[in-house]
């Protein structure tokens, strides 16, 4: 996770050896926004919210694609940024539901809310009825 954040930040244009050449620098505002998003992902993940982190990673990917499309990311950095973001998206995935969660979902199927005759919300259950007559 820290590697991903560091690589996103590497494009800001600063470094120990002085500023990077302008042609290789990611627009500062875009780099800061991507880094902020990467920090949000790290916080969610380390806080145990893997599904939330996965959603944020998907959003980061969309923002990185937008930054590339807008020209905020120079060609020299595009492949690196895309590879880092894709790696992050592929690493953080919401775990599949447990058997217990699947059973709960099955129990909820067909149930919902409807509006009653008096305009108040009421529970509704969908029932399938066969129209074939027994012969």
Overview of the structural elements:
The radius of gyration is 24 Å and the shape is elongated. It starts with a helix and ends in a 10-residue tail after the last strand. Mean pLDDT is 76; it is low at 2-15 and 124-135. The protein has 135 residues and is mostly helical. Helix content is 55%, strand content 7%. The protein has helices spanning 2-9, 28-46, 50-69, 75-91, 99-108, and strands spanning 111-115, 121-125.
Structural classification:
mainly alpha
Helix and strand element order? HHHHHEE
Residue share in helix: 40-55%
Mean pLDDT: 76
The Rg value, from CA coordinates, equals 24 Å
Strand content: 5-15%
Beginning-to-end CA distance, first to last residue: 66 Å
Shape: elongated
Low-confidence stretches: 2-15, 124-135
In this structure, how is the largest beta sheet organized? 2 strands, antiparallel
Strand order of the largest sheet: 1-2
User: What's the tally of helices?
Assistant: 5
Question: How many β-strand stretches?
Answer: 2
Topology readout:
Layout: H1 2-9, H2 28-46, H3 50-69, H4 75-91, H5 99-108, E1 111-115, E2 121-125
Antiparallel strand pairs: 1-2
Helix pairs in contact: 1-2, 2-3, 3-4
